[in-house]
Amino acid sequence: KGKSNNLDAKVTETELETEEKSMEEESTRESDSSILDVSSDYPREKHISIQRHLADLEKLADLKEDERKPCPLCPEEKFKACYSHKLHRHLQNLHWKVSVEFEGYRMCICHLPCHPVKPNLVGDQTLSKMGAHYHCIICSATITRRTDMIGHINRHVNKGETESRFVTVPVPKLSREVLKESATDVQVLPNYSTPQKTDSYFNPKMKLNRQLIFCALAVLAGERKPIECLDAFGATGIMGLQWAKHLQSSVKVTINDCNENSVTMIQENCHLNKMKVKLNTKEEDGDETMGDGEENTDTIEVTKMDANVIMHLRSFDFIHLDPFGTSVNYLDSAFRNVRNLGIVSLTSTDISSLYAKAQHVALRHYGCNIVRTEYYRELAARIVIAAVTRAAARCNKGVEVLLAVALEHFVLVVVRVLRGPTPADDSAKKIRYLIHCQWCEERIFQKEGNMVEENPYQQLPCDCHGSMPGKTAVVLGPLWSGALFNTGFLRRMLFEAAHYGLDEAQPLLKTLVCEAECTTLKHLTTQSPCDENKQEECGVYIKTPNASDESPLVHGKRKSEEVMRNAPKRQKPEGSAEHPAFYYNIHRHSIKGMNMPKLNKFLNYLSEAGYRVSRTHFDPMGVRTNAPLAQFKTVLMKYSTPTYTGGQAEGPVHLAEGVLAEQVQAAADGKEEDAEFLEDEKSGVADAMFTADHPTPCAAE
């Protein structure tokens, strides 16, 4: 009997397995037939839970007043058949109100056995236990949560996928928008402004960044021709197209991207701008295709590789890195094969970490300890340059910083590569730590040397550690301690910007030139061809038609060894007039109850006191100067006026306040006699203010 029972059990198990297989085959056939029968009005054919109106959902139940009907979206064991009024409330409250809307359709929640629940720990794997879920109108996926379904639909929209993947009818081509920038046309998808969710990311706010990089490339193209340049992250290819369209035969442009859709978009944009395209998806060369017109005979090479791979395989004179976020993962490859005296530019958009909002991320990516300071933007630029310098030094190369810009959306760094261990050692020595006082915002780089300092607070010019309790300073870094700008290179960039009509870059370049020279804007003069000899003493040259014979960079692929050895030596005197590090914010150090002078007037006051001074692009209210913070505050207090509520004359107020500031300074120096004399003079001025209703201009002075 026991044997017969076992045989019966085996027979029943085999019968169940065959029945299940037949059921699966029937379901797959039904799904295939439903897929083949999809018409252009595909959302209603996808699943019965996707409807336009509640009435359409009620039609599925075939409501009648005198009959009990089951719910079309719930199994019988979950919701039993009922009359029409109760079923109407059920469909409206349980299915329709929690639906997800997309293009006029509602994806209602479904309780049918379409999405099986994972088995529990007990092992209950009954087919009747199914979970509530939604059916995607685009890809027929089943998702349990409503918020996840909304995010799933949004991802489809951001990728431009608004048609079903399973329809057999041809999918219409996505509508594309044509944008124009600097006489270059590019096609983009409608969601081009969403990063990481589109294959053609294009940010119009980065137009200034693209113009600065173009000016740097134009300067390099004037030094030697032709140069091989690489846009490692092409996206739409807008940057490489601008290079090839304006510089023409001076450059050989290579646009790279690892995304296949982006590569296709770049090819179409090349054809749109009537450029030849040379497609190269592997190490060997690819085929050439011609655009619609043959006006431009230049060829753009489009590659589909990882950025690290193409920079390891080939050598370039100019490399630009603009990944989404940090670019530290590509620095080693960029400096591996870059040619001597070439240029590497990188744009970092990880602003949250560089601007000390996510300090742990900065420590992880750049190995740098930072805090939020008043000069956080320059701090971010020096962090990136320090990472660039370390990557170049690992390849036995040094760097010369040509340009460092930190604005609201990005940090741009442009460096020239100097091959050899000696330039690498000289550049590595400029990476130092910074001592920052958290009370008064005073800062200074640590002294060179490996010996341990007994009292590091002695290096700071302020005495906050002696007057304040506890530890008052922090050590930041490692940071780049050298210059951030090359004056001659910036002047040549300004010349190229004016030559090509880049109006947005010219004001910024003028500010950078003044900041590099640490002078005010009124002292900036446009260089003429007769002034080239004076500019040559600084080791940099302005691009003019007569400058080809004097330039140390000849118009060939390489220079002679003697000139190559002398080039870094001739550029050395540029560091003698190096601009001061960091800047002070005039609002941060303002005096409570006092009206500050205008910023331009304050710059003149500091200059008259014998200090170098200029404005800075990092902060619109920042002042770059070599004056210590104590002298900065003294001059600021001297020319600040008290905030009066009454309508008094401005002339005597300035005089009285100026005398008061001199009195404070005299009392601080211990000159009691001068202080008494100034007190008498102050009282006389106050009497004159009281008696005179209309003071004369000479008295005001």
Sum this structure up briefly.
This is tRNA (guanine(27)-N(2))-dimethyltransferase. Its main location: nucleus. This protein has 24 helices and 24 strands.
Supply the key terms:
701 residues, alpha+beta, Phenylalanyl-tRNA Synthetase, Chain B, domain 1, 3-stranded antiparallel beta sheet, 24 helices, 39% helix, tRNA binding, Znf_C2H2_type
Overview of the structural elements:
- By secondary structure, the chain is an alpha+beta fold.
- Among the domains are: 50-115 and 131-158, no CATH class; 584-642, Phenylalanyl-tRNA Synthetase, Chain B, domain 1.
- It has a 9-stranded mixed beta sheet with strand order 11-10-12-9-8-13-14-16-15, sandwiched between helices. The protein has a 3-stranded antiparallel beta sheet with strand order 1-3-2.
- Helix 6 packs parallel to helix 7 (238-247), helix 13 (376-394) runs antiparallel to helix 14 and helix 22 packs antiparallel against helix 23 (672-691).
- It starts with a helix and ends with a helix.
- The N terminus and C terminus are likely disordered.
Q: How are the strands of the biggest sheet laid out side by side? A: 11-10-12-9-8-13-14-16-15
Q: State the end-to-end distance.
A: 125 Å
Largest beta sheet, briefly?
Answer: 9 strands, mixed
What is the number of strand segments? 24
Class per helix and strand makeup: alpha+beta
Which stretches of 5+ consecutive residues score pLDDT under 50? 1-14, 23-44, 120-129, 164-173, 283-288, 290-297, 528-576, 645-679, 681-701
Overall radius of gyration:
36 Å
Shape: globular
Count up the helices. Answer: 24
Query: What share of the residues does DSSP label as strand, in percent?
Result: 5-15%
Fraction in helix: 25-40%
Calculate the mean pLDDT score and round it: 77
